[in-house]
Write a structure and sequence with these properties.
Layout lengths: L2 H31 L3 H22 L4
Amino acid sequence: MSRTSGRANLWRTFAAPLMILVASGVGLIAALMTNGPGDWLSWAALSIPLAAVVWGRLYRRR
């Protein structure tokens, strides 16, 4: 395996968890620091991990 294909596989493996981490962080900071529209942002961002879990449970490989 070449070095570039290894990095591509690493990115493919960790892309979704990193995006969920960023969305969770944005949601938590928005919830703690803002009111009004920030509350909506926090609800939207913090629903992403929940949606990922539901999607994973519904469409997992058997």
